Amino acid sequence: MKNILITGTSTGVGFEAALLFAEHNYKVYATMRNLKKANTLQEEAKKRNLSIEILRLDVTDNDSILKAIDLIIAQDGKIDILLNNAGAGFAKTLEQTSQEEIDWVTDVNYTGVIRTTKAVLPFMREKKAGHIINVTSIGGLVGQPFNELYCGAKFAVEGFTEALASYISPTFNINFSLVEPGGITTEFMNNAVQKTQNENGELATGEYAPIFHKYLSGAQDRASNEELPMYQTGKQVAEVIFKVAETDTPPLRVRTSVWSENLGNLKTQLDPDGSKLLKQVQSYFL
User: Catalytic one among 110, 150, 208, 231?
Assistant: First the structure.
């Protein structure tokens, strides 16, 4: 039986992925920062008669990462798939962002991926098998207004993953994949906008306010577009992740919707799944 370690499973994509993989007979280690939020997943798993082991893992806390991985290795002796899903949205202008917020966005969305990846690699390398799937965003390919810090972190994950795949995959048979959703209909965007509010609940955008309100209005319009919807459900994104995990030769990158495919098309049309670029990099350097 294959096992999978998933980060950020209290809600959204991680929540749906944990259930989906369990339904397909994976041994699922569903992790979250705050175990007080575990009840919803536990109840849903029980309702569906699924076995899911829930562990505490905070991607900003290396000790919690190592403790969770040590437990999995002690029980199974391996980690087949790592799904780096944990992340947080952030929509705010750079000028109005504190250094504390900059550090937080980077830590949750980028450095956390580094920590978990570094922790599982020795075990995958020993087995010469494994698959690391990093959930980024179309914002990891295309910079977007008021998302410069979030996009910067996701761009970083993309480069990090491409670089690892260039030499670890052919040498140690460890696959790397980037899953790039557009918008997701979870509390993700609401949380991102809340970061922009001041203590009175007002949008703290100052001179940027007219542009920001136009941005929010456009997001609402895109959300209501039935012909080409921007937003997917967490379950829809989880289904794409599952297909990537089940593929014999998984892609380096994949968009999860027509909307995200269209937005990134100018950057991806010559090499949609990243395989050509990967081969080129390997031919240049190895």
Answer: 150
